Amino acid sequence: MTSDQAPPRVRYQVTYAVLAAAVISFVLQQTMLNPVLPTLQRELDTTQADIAWVLTANFLATAVFTPILGRLGDMVGKKRVLVGALVAVAVGSAIAALATTLPVMVLARVVQGVGGGVIPLAFGVIRDEFPPSRVPGAIGTISSLMAVGGGIGTIVAGPIVDGLGYEWLFWLPCLAVAAAAVGAHLVIPESRTRTGGSINLVAALLLSSWLVCLLLALTQAPKWGWGSPTVVAMLIGGVVLLVVWITVETRARQPLIDMRMMRLRGVWTANVVGLLFGAAMYAGFAFIPQFLQTPESTGYGLQASITLSGLVLLPQSVVSFLTGLASGRLVARFGSKLVLIVGALSCSIGFALFARFNDSLWEVSIIGILMGVGFGLAFSAMANLVVAAVPSSQTGVASGMNTNIRTIGGAVGTALLAGVVTADLQPSGYPAESGYTSAFVLAAAGLLLAALAALLVPAVRRDPITHEEPAAPLRHPQAGTIPGATLVGDGRE
């Protein structure tokens, strides 16, 4: 294994451009469908309940493949796996564009979900190839692209469908991802740091099983009922499989996800914050456009079109991206912990304000700016905390699990808040305003909890020139030494 302390190779700026294109292309194919599901429902001649599987299938595939591809990239080379993941997204997008039935569309979305590994692989490439002083800023900006991509997807979906047809919601990402795959193959150097070994197939199967049980139960509970035997059985089964998976991973000689790594205080605290952030962010992407598009006849709706509601949220996406660009300097000056706390508080205040001040589009847009600052700060800080807390050989799987936990949080938050929003329906079939208000207050409370959880994040000692953590091995009372891990806090994680 070659040391990750070797001098970085040239053209890291070009590498960064390719990685950014890959991440934004993947996120766009995830989010552009949210505001146009009714159009897909009509085109595929299916029901409102069944069309939700277009989102659920992608959610499940992303949750399953993200940590697996992160681990595979650490083992055999991040470039090779990154290119493969991008090719899978392109193939899935092409199948979706040609789909004329719901089962084919769902299959295509599963194939697209394989690309979830793009995000942890991008973090791993940055750590391998960039100068140490550039790593925090690059990771911060890439992280902010996840929030930016969600906003852009909401903005462009309406004009694409109106001008070109819904098929181009898939053809455009297909072309973009294919170009990113070619760029990655030509530009990105192969990893110098590899762990070797093999994929633990039993652990992968167990991981897939408990995630499928959990996410299926959470996404279908509003439809089937939280007390239905099927939902209860899946929740219990998910918990049992989770316990079995943890046991298998703890005892395995070559675990898919190193449980010693997951017990690092810098990792598990970032994951708790990520779970809460994912719940609020994905719920916001789902319900704020719906709120804006509600007819004025309900007494509270603003009756915005799909395109207009996206434009209202455009400042949030722009500010989130700009904040991500500046996050590297902020992390270097103030530390990831403080940046994370400020980001969580900013988002919490934004949701609280949105619950109260939502009578006009300009109010929503201004509040969105505050939330954009919070998302940009928090996502970059979380990514940097995870990358700093683990050895470079485990960057992919650690950051992949953090991304995965945000996905799980998104499923939990969306399912729970959907129940809150639809608990009281008007005779017209639209939710009462109180449902939205309660949902946004709960999102604000969840983000306040995220800020409190961030207080548990250990302080990281950084080199004043490179802003890197010292490369001392990290010892655990029961797990021994993890070679190459960085020392965070007081080392008692």
From TrEMBL:
Intracellular or extracellular location(s): Cell membrane
Recorded topology in the membrane: Multi-pass membrane protein
Keyword list, A-Z: Cell membrane, Membrane, Transmembrane, Transmembrane helix, Transport
Keyword match Membrane: yes
CDD domains documented for this protein: MFS_MMR_MDR_like
Signal peptide positions (record): none
Protein name (Swiss-Prot/TrEMBL): Drug resistance transporter, EmrB/QacA subfamily
Organism (species): Trujillonella endophytica
